[in-house]
Write a structure and sequence with these properties.
This protein is of the alpha/beta class. It is built from 4 helices and 6 strands. The protein folds into 2 domains: about 10-45; about 50-135, 2-Layer Sandwich (Nucleotidyltransferase, domain 5). It has helices at about 10, 20-45, 85-90, 110-120; strands at about 50, 60-65, 70-75, 100-105, 125-130, 130-135.
Length: about 140
């Protein structure tokens, strides 16, 4: 009687375990999504500020951004604020809180005055305008 032994490699199919691969791709995607969001919030808004010969650094101030389209943001918020929302946000802070207005150099002057006027109406008197130092 002849016995025939089958070679194991002839009938073996290569199987790929997809679940661990999908898990790893998801973890990498989540990692990059979180780190890029965190990095952009740390960097602040990219503003092209006007130049000035003098200026001082002020720490611990809340920052109001006015972009080139006149949209208002407070402290790196993702969405612009309307004037009424801006006033509501202001009321969350102490009256002696220092404020820094970072307005793009191409923003209409009227938009900066609106922000400054609303700060004054709400009795926030510690306000500075941010500038870039001259590079001469």
């Amino acid at each position: 009687m002849k016995t025939r032994f089958k070679n194991k490699s002839e009938n073996t199919e290569l199987k790929i375990a997809w679940t661990p691969l999908i898990d790893m791709v998801f973890i990498l995607l989540l990692f990059f999504a979180v780190t890029t969001t965190w990095a952009s919030k740390e960097a602040g808004m990219n503003m092209e500020l006007p130049n000035a010969g003098s200026g001082t650094q002020q720490n611990n101030s809340q920052i109001i951004y006015v972009d080139e389209l006149g949209r208002i943001y407070i402290n790196n918020q993702d969405t612009p604020l309307s004037i009424s929302d801006f006033l509501n946000e202001l009321n969350r802070f102490e009256k002696d809180q220092p404020w820094e207005i970072r307005a793009n150099k191409n923003v209409p002057y009227e938009k900066v005055i609106i922000v400054l006027d609303n700060l004054r109406k709400e009795k926030y008197m510690n306000v500075i305008l941010a500038v870039e130092p001259n590079r001469n």
